[in-house]
Structures are given as structure tokens and as C-alpha cells.
Amino acid sequence: CETCSKEEAKYRCPRCMKYSCSLLCVRKHKLAMSCNGVRDKTAFVSVNEFTDLNLLSDYRFLEDVGRTADAAARHGIVHSPATKRLLYCLRNKARGRNIELKTLPVGFTKRRENSTTFNSVENKFYWHLKLIFPHCHAEYTLKGVPDDKTLADILKPYIDPVESDPVVCQRLKIYTASPQSDVRILMKIENRNRNSVRYNELDASRSLLDNLKGKVIIEYPTLFVVLKTLKNDMVVLGQDGSEPAENSDSESSSLSSVEEGEIRDS
């Protein structure tokens, strides 16, 4: 058992392949690893390990995708004039702030969960925001984040050793125990080839709006919080020695790969 290291393992998690000996250890492992126990249907399988079961799984997955896409196309809200006006307004207001906001069709995961709004009276966005802490396998969803709030203030309830919630602080203790100077905030650059994934490093002292300017956003921003002292596989544009730093809106790749990934998520 990879949780208690005492008993013989009887179960294997379909999601992360961790071995457990009992229901108690299964629950502990799910809590510690933020694992939902659901098999990842899109996980990579090498050709040598590919079996008839994998083929059948892929076939059923594609059938599910087809049904989901068909249901989304038939959904009445897709053709609602009010919905189209709202999305047009959001994209237009974002464009006026030098942000290229792209929206996905109804039925896509990010489209369903996006709660971003624009307040015409205050003349500012209230963003749906996702924070991912890779070193702790944790992620949090924030709603109604004003665009004039600095990233440092956004992160305070999570990684500040004094102001963070005790439960969250315990879960993210590797962050709260590290100097604030070690914290890096990254955002994936959209519209790039899958074999050339790059990230922009954001400035924690500046507002969310300032950091999003000149960027391409698919529905809502997703921020990755990493530590300089710990190894990660995220390549920051301009720091990999092969490409200069530049704004993400200069990328010219198509959106199809992003949409394909969203279809898989839905």
C-alpha cells in the first residue's frame, strides 16, 4: 500500500495508479493527492502497451464526444440572441483593453463553468479565475475577481503565511513555507502547437488587467503558481534560450488544438 506502507495492496486507483490496501487508505490517498479516482480517458498510452481494451475505450470516448457535440448543437441557448449579445459584449470590452478573449461553443467545459461578467457602471471585468498549484496537486476556482486587483492580493488567501485560510495553508504548506520571492505566476500561451507549449511569467505586483493585456484568453484565465526552487516542466517564453519573449497575440497557430482539448474535457 502506497498510503500506509503497512498492508498488502488490494486496490489500484484507475486515475493515478496508486496502490491501496483498504477503503480508508483509498480515501486518504484521494484527499492527499486531490484525486477523484476516475480513469483519465485521454491519458497517453504507448503503442507497445496499446490493447484491444484501449481501442474499445477510445471508440466509446469518441461516441460520447459525438453525442455531447450533437446535444450542444441542439441546445436552445446556443441560438439565443441574448447569449450572443452577451458574448459579443464581453469580447468587445476585452478587445478595448487589448485582451483577445475567445469563447467556446455551448457544451464545452470551460464555456459551461465560465462566470466572467462585465460591470458597465464600474467599467471593469469580474473574472472567473482558476489557480493551479502544481507542486501540491491543488487547484482552486475563483469567481468575480475584479480586474484591478493585484495578483499578490489574489494569492494572499492561499499562500500568505498569516492571511491564508488554515486549511488551505496546510494543504499548500510548501508554498507558505517558501519566501515570496520564490513564487512565480505563469500563464499558458494559447494558440501554440502542442509540441511547443510555452508560458508567460506574470508580475504579482501588477493588477490582473495589466497582466492580461496583450494576451489571448480562452474563456477565462488559468494561472499556474510555481516555485523557482522546485523543478517543473513549464518553459517560460524568453527563458528557454530558443525564443524571445513576446506577447501571446503574435502567435498565429489555429485554435483547433485548444478546441479539441476542450471537447475531450467535456
Automatic annotation (TrEMBL):
<feature type="compositionally biased region" description="Low complexity">
    <location>
        <begin position="242"/>
        <end position="258"/>
    </location>
</feature>
<dbReference type="Pfam" id="PF25790">
    <property type="entry name" value="BCD1"/>
</dbReference>
<keyword id="KW-1017">Isopeptide bond</keyword>
<protein>
    <recommendedName>
        <fullName>Box C/D snoRNA protein 1</fullName>
    </recommendedName>
</protein>
<dbReference type="InterPro" id="IPR057721">
    <property type="entry name" value="BCD1_alpha/beta"/>
</dbReference>
<keyword id="KW-0597">Phosphoprotein</keyword>
<comment type="subunit">
    <text>Interacts with FBL, SNU13, NOP58, NUFIP1, RUVBL1, RUVBL2 and TAF9. Interacts (via HIT-type zinc finger) with the RUVBL1/RUVBL2 complex in the presence of ADP.</text>
</comment>
<dbReference type="InterPro" id="IPR007529">
    <property type="entry name" value="Znf_HIT"/>
</dbReference>
<dbReference type="GO" id="GO:0000492">
    <property type="term" value="P:box C/D snoRNP assembly"/>
</dbReference>
<feature type="region of interest" description="Disordered">
    <location>
        <begin position="238"/>
        <end position="266"/>
    </location>
</feature>
<dbReference type="GO" id="GO:0000463">
    <property type="term" value="P:maturation of LSU-rRNA from tricistronic rRNA transcript (SSU-rRNA, 5.8S rRNA, LSU-rRNA)"/>
</dbReference>
<dbReference type="GO" id="GO:0070761">
    <property type="term" value="C:pre-snoRNP complex"/>
</dbReference>
<dbReference type="Pfam" id="PF04438">
    <property type="entry name" value="zf-HIT"/>
</dbReference>
<keyword id="KW-0690">Ribosome biogenesis</keyword>
<dbReference type="GO" id="GO:0048254">
    <property type="term" value="P:snoRNA localization"/>
</dbReference>
<dbReference type="GO" id="GO:0005634">
    <property type="term" value="C:nucleus"/>
</dbReference>
<keyword id="KW-0832">Ubl conjugation</keyword>
<comment type="similarity">
    <text>Belongs to the BCD1 family.</text>
</comment>
<keyword id="KW-0862">Zinc</keyword>
<keyword id="KW-0479">Metal-binding</keyword>
<feature type="domain" description="HIT-type">
    <location>
        <begin position="1"/>
        <end position="35"/>
    </location>
</feature>
<dbReference type="InterPro" id="IPR051639">
    <property type="entry name" value="BCD1"/>
</dbReference>
<comment type="function">
    <text>Required for box C/D snoRNAs accumulation involved in snoRNA processing, snoRNA transport to the nucleolus and ribosome biogenesis.</text>
</comment>
<dbReference type="GO" id="GO:0008270">
    <property type="term" value="F:zinc ion binding"/>
</dbReference>
<keyword id="KW-0863">Zinc-finger</keyword>
